[in-house]
Write a structure and sequence with these properties.
Blueprint: E1 6-12, H1 29-37, E2 39-45, H2 51-60, H3 64-67, H4 86-92, E3 96-101, E4 116-119, H5 129-139, E5 145-150, H6 180-209, E6 216-222, H7 237-240, E7 241-242, E8 244-247, E9 256-263, H8 267-275, H9 289-292, E10 302-309, E11 313-321, E12 324-329, H10 345-352, E13 363-367, H11 385-401, E14 417-419, E15 432-434
Parallel strand pairs: 1-5, 1-6, 2-9, 3-4, 3-5
Antiparallel strand pairs: 2-7, 2-8, 6-8, 10-11, 11-12, 12-13, 14-15
Length: 435
C-alpha cells in the first residue's frame, strides 16, 4: 500500500463561495493558485449553514443531528461522542493530529483529542499568530499528519477595508439590493478575504517549502454562506453553498473543475479512501474519489441540510436534487428569526424597509434550473404537485433514516446551553440559559 497522505485542512468562517476561484470580484490569489493546481468543486454544499453543526458534519461524515451537534459550541452545545471526529479517528489510525487556530466543534479544544494544540486564539480574537504556529509545525512534522488550521475571517465584524476594497466598487451578492449599506459590508468582507488569503498563502508556501506538498492532501473550505441577510443560516444555496478546493496526490491536481454535487459529509469517506482506511459505520457521505478518477459524473442524486439552533431556535430542513430544492420549516412561525442574522449594515437597511415583517412560508420549492436565485416559491403550483410530493417524500425518508429529533416534536435545548428568544431582533439580545 502506498504511504498514507498527510492532511492539511484549512478553513474559514462565513465565506460561502464568494471568492475569486468561483468567478467573484473578491480577490483571493492564494486560493486561486491552489485552485489552478488542484480540483475545484463548483457545486459543494455544507450540511448545515450554521457554524458548529456545519463543522461537526464535515468532521464526522454525517449530518449535524446524527453527530449530535444541534447548536453553537460557544453557547454550550456539544457532540456526545468526539471519537467520531476526524482528528480522533485518524489518530487511532496512526496519524499525528494537530490544531492551530479556530475550531468550533467543541467548547474546549481539548475535548476533541488532538495530539497537539499548537495555538488557539483567545476569545475568538483575530490574532494570526496561529499561522506561524502552523508554519513551525510544517517545518519538520511527524508523518502522516492531520493538521487543522482555522481562521476567524471572514466572520463579522469585518476587517477594515484598504484602498483596494473601495466600497464604491464592491460587488453585491445576488440576494441583496445594490445600496450603500450592502456595498460597505462587502468592502469589509473583501478586506477580511484578503487577510484570510494572505494567511492561506503563508501556510501553503510553508508546505511547499518543506517538500511535503506532493504527499499532502490540502482541503480548503468554509462552514457556510457569508454573514449577510438571506445567506448564513438560510437553506437556499446562498447559505449552504461553500467553496471546496482540494489539492494533492491521487488525482487532486491539474486545475480541474468538478461540477458534480457534493456535500461536506463526503469529505470524511474521501479521506478514508485516500488513507486506505475503512470508513466507519456512522459515515453517511460518499467518497469523492470516483469523481476525481473520472469514473462517474455524479456520486449523489440528492443532499440534505439543516438548521436547528443558531442564536435562536429556528428548525428547518431541506433536500436538494440536481434540479430542485425543497425547504420545510418546523416552528410554526410566519416571520423570520431575526436573531439568526448577524448584525450588519445590510441587515439594518433591510429592517428599515420592512424585511423583518415579510411572511415566511412553511414550505418552499424551487426549480434550480430556471430559478437559481431561489426567488419563486413553486410549492403552491398545481403543475408542480408531483415534484413537491417527491421532495416531501425524500426529506421524510431522510429524517426517518437518520432519526431526526424533529420527528418527535420541538427540540428542547440541552441543559446549560444559551439561546436567544426567537422574537429577539438581534443575536446580541440577552440570552436565556436553558436547563
Amino acid at each position: 500500500m502506498a504511504a498514507r497522505p498527510n492532511i492539511l485542512y484549512i478553513h474559514s468562517h462565513d465565506t460561502g463561495r464568494y471568492i475569486q476561484p468561483y468567478g467573484h470580484a473578491v480577490p483571493t490569489p492564494s486560493l486561486q493558485r491552489l485552485a489552478e493546481q488542484g480540483v475545484v468543486f463548483r457545486q459543494a454544499f455544507c450540511a448545515a449553514p450554521t457554524c458548529s453543526p456545519s463543522r461537526a458534519a464535515l468532521l464526522t461524515g454525517q449530518c449535524a443531528h446524527s453527530a449530535g451537534m444541534l447548536g453553537l459550541a460557544h453557547r454550550g452545545f456539544v457532540m456526545p461522542d468526539y471519537s467520531c471526529h476526524l482528528a480522533s479517528f485518524l489518530r487511532t489510525a496512526g496519524y499525528t493530529t494537530a490544531l492551530a487556530g479556530v475550531q468550533h466543534e467543541a467548547p474546549d479544544s481539548a475535548m476533541i483529542g488532538y495530539d497537539r494544540l499548537l495555538l488557539k486564539p483567545a476569545n475568538w480574537a483575530k490574532t494570526l499568530e496561529h499561522t506561524e504556529a502552523a508554519v513551525r509545525f510544517l517545518r519538520s512534522p511527524p508523518e502522516p499528519f492531520f493538521l487543522s488550521v482555522g481562521f476567524f475571517q471572514t466572520h463579522e465584524p469585518f476587517e477594515k477595508p484598504s484602498a483596494a476594497e473601495d466600497e464604491r466598487f464592491s460587488p453585491v451578492p445576488p440576494p441583496l439590493p445594490d445600496v450603500p449599506a450592502v456595498r460597505s459590508d462587502m468592502a469589509g468582507f473583501r478586506a477580511s478575504a484578503r487577510v484570510l488569503d494572505e494567511q492561506y498563502g503563508t501556510i501553503l508556501s510553508a508546505l511547499d517549502g518543506s517538500g511535503l506538498a506532493d504527499r499532502t492532501l490540502v482541503i480548503a473550505t468554509t462552514d457556510h454562506g457569508i454573514p449577510l441577510p438571506g445567506m448564513k443560516c438560510n437553506l437556499t444555496d446562498h447559505g449552504i453553498g461553500v467553496y471546496l478546493v482540494m489539492r494533492g496526490p491521487c488525482g487532486f491536481a491539474g486545475g480541474r473543475v468538478c461540477d458534480a454535487m457534493v456535500s461536506h459529509v463526503d469529505v470524511f469517506p474521501t479521506v478514508c479512501e485516500l488513507a486506505g482506511i475503512d470508513a466507519p459505520g456512522w459515515v453517511e457521505g460518499f467518497s469523492m474519489m470516483p469523481l476525481v478518477r473520472g469514473e462517474t459524473q455524479q456520486i449523489r442524486q440528492e443532499l440534505y441540510a439543516e438548521v436547528t439552533y443558531h442564536a435562536a431556535y429556528e428548525p428547518q430542513r431541506c433536500v436538494r436534487t440536481l434540479r430542485h430544492k425543497y425547504i420545510r420549516r418546523f416552528d410554526g412561525r410566519s416571520r423570520r428569526v431575526l436573531a439568526n442574522c448577524d448584525d450588519t449594515a445590510s441587515k439594518a437597511h433591510l429592517l428599515s424597509v420592512g424585511w423583518g415583517d415579510e411572511p415566511i412560508p412553511e414550505e418552499m420549492l424551487f426549480d434550480l434550473a430556471l430559478d437559481p436565485q431561489e426567488r419563486e416559491n413553486l410549492a403552491a403550483r398545481s403543475e408542480r404537485a408531483q415534484v413537491l410530493a417527491d421532495m416531501r417524500r425524500r426529506l421524510a425518508d431522510w429524517m426517518t433514516r437518520t432519526d431526526d429529533p424533529l420527528l418527535r416534536g420541538p427540540v428542547a435545548p440541552p441543559p446549560g446551553t444559551k439561546s436567544n428568544h426567537p422574537d429577539d431582533r438581534s443575536p446580541k439580545a440577552p440570552m436565556t440559559v436553558m436547563g
